[in-house]
Amino acid sequence: MVKGFSHYWTKIEIRRQLDVIRGKTAPTKVIANAKWLNSFRKSWMEGNIWIYHDRIVYVGERFPDVITESTEIVDATNKYVVPGYIEHHAHPFQLYHPLTLAQYACERGTTTMINDNLMLFLQIDKKKALTMLDNLQKTPATMLWWARYDAQTELLDGNEAFTFSKVKAWLDHPYVVQGGELTDWLRVLQGDDTILHWMLDTKDIRKPIEGHLPGAGEKTITQMALLGVDGDHEAMTGEEVLRRLDLGMTASLRYSSIRPDLPGILQELHAAGFRQYDHLLMTTDGSTPGFMKKGVMDHLIKLAVEQGVPFIDAVGMCTYNPAKYFHMEDMLGMIAPGRIANLNLLTSTEEPLPTDVLAKGEWVRRESQPCFPRGEFPWETYGLQPLELDWELKKEDFHFSLPIGVEMVNEVILKPYRLSNDLSLEALPPSSEECFFMLIDRNGKWSVTTAMKGFADNLYGFASSFSNTGDIILIGKSKQGLLAAFNELKKQKGGIVLVDPEGPVASIPLTLSGLMSTASMETLMAKEAAMKVALSERGYRFSDPIYSLLFFSATHLPYIRVTQKGIFDVKKKKVLFPSIMR
């Protein structure tokens, strides 16, 4: 039998918690004289909250019969206490690593992260990755995960990466609480029974399935519901939200660096007379560091209230609603006996940023000062070390002979175009919108070479090991610039670098396998901002270059992608031009 997340405390621990109620043992903390949110009644109650280590053991008017010197009593007079916020759709690898995001989020009241597992799934051995989940859970943050069914790209070893035993091991882990997100749903509709089998396994163990259905119509969503998809975060308008709700799906409203849709969607829903929020969630959907300067779920609550959502409902959209959706309301999302002691103390119902935050009964924000415990995490134990590129680029690697290039429509949409410049030149003309583009295996085994229009018009050399698969991206006007950027990336041991003829201009070191940084969120915000300015000065005209890098190979988006297998037509599910072995 698969153990769920609710199987959290041992029999001995539960007996001790019972002793607190019986007056035999003192609680470790008491939040006294509190106005606390009753999520069932959707109203404010007054009383005391008893906590024993990491669990709420009592909520009501009583004060404990037994108090010791070690019992911390917090007078919450004039404070409003709400459950810790839940970010149910986190991509915890957007330059930061999962603990960096969790720390930053916790200190602002978002004490539970439900995380994408794709990068761990693809980059780390199964046994090590699942052990990592257990160790990450030892921090004050509640760290939960998804189990992906597909890589959202074309992998050379796709069948080896997504084996039955590997996916099943993830699904069965108690800290994995959903299947998906399902980006390759078209493959399932077209008859793929492997993914459907995993989806049915997910339903058997009472874990929801998250879809990925941008622009989907009634027919598609209906079919997804029949396949078992429970919710979706890709609605971009109020009408699309209603379509999901009308067909029985939970809808998540997104406010992210690539899709800041939340305010507009709420305006459209309210204009349509909609005032029922019980099946709505909210998410930052993997926003880049700079986008979260104003906060995480606390900021989304504020935005929702500004659009007319009642405060209690706005809080519910990132506390009780997600907890109930994930069948975890016995553990999270409300203030009641038996729940994990994740609590936010607020000064008013107009300011969702807490003055004080308890995460698993431990202070991570106290009197408006962040205090999440700092400590080193043994990333190297799991194979996440500085990237060693022990191979060289050779002259023959800079051979560009494909008849089509890739044009950027926006940050993430790519379409094909017929090449207009002679790619045998050492440098493309300054007047051209084109750059040389290369995707190269991180182990140097294969490459894809073409041209890209619309990324930048005055870029000497740019290199990134940050990508969907961890392979190396090179972009620039000059082949010598590509080589210079690659060599700088090697020297930096992974990350993102931009070079001019005179040398490096901007860089973001990513010392964990070339994919994640160990720097603080504030440092990453500054690094990201400097890189965006440098790229903008060289002709990058969009708003989010980090997502551009991530999605160049992402086959859940139209129209073509540059993947490990080569240039790939998303609609036809066909490799147009294969990658070349080096």
Rg measurement, Å: 25 Å
Percent of residues in beta strands: 25-35%
Give the tally of β-strands: 29
Largest sheet: 9 strands, mixed
- The rough form would be described as globular
CATH homology superfamily name of the largest domain:
Metal-dependent hydrolases
Supply the number of helical segments.
Answer: 17
Overall structural domain count: 2
Q: Report the CATH C-level class of the largest domain.
A: Alpha Beta
Helical coverage, percent range: 25-40%
Which class of secondary structure composition applies to the elements?
alpha/beta
Could you tell me the CATH topology label of the largest domain.
TIM Barrel
What report would you give on this structure?
InterPro entries: Adenine_deam_C, Amidohydro-rel, Metal-dep_hydrolase_composite, Metal_Hydrolase. Its EC number is 3.5.4.2. Keywords: Hydrolase. The chain is an alpha/beta fold. The mean pLDDT is 96. The longest helix is centred in the last third of the chain and has 17 residues, at 521-537. The protein is globular. The strands form 5 sheets. Strands 1, 2, 3, 4, 5, 14, 15, 16 and 17 form a 9-stranded mixed beta sheet that branches. Strand 12, helix 11 (262-271) and strand 13 (280-283) form a beta-alpha-beta unit. Helix 6 (164-172) runs parallel beside helix 8 (193-204) and helix 10 (238-246) crosses helix 11. The two termini are 47 Å apart. It folds into 2 domains: 83-332, Metal-dependent hydrolases (TIM Barrel, Alpha-Beta Barrel), CATH 3.20.20; 395-581, no CATH class. Helices cover 27% and strands 26% of the residues.
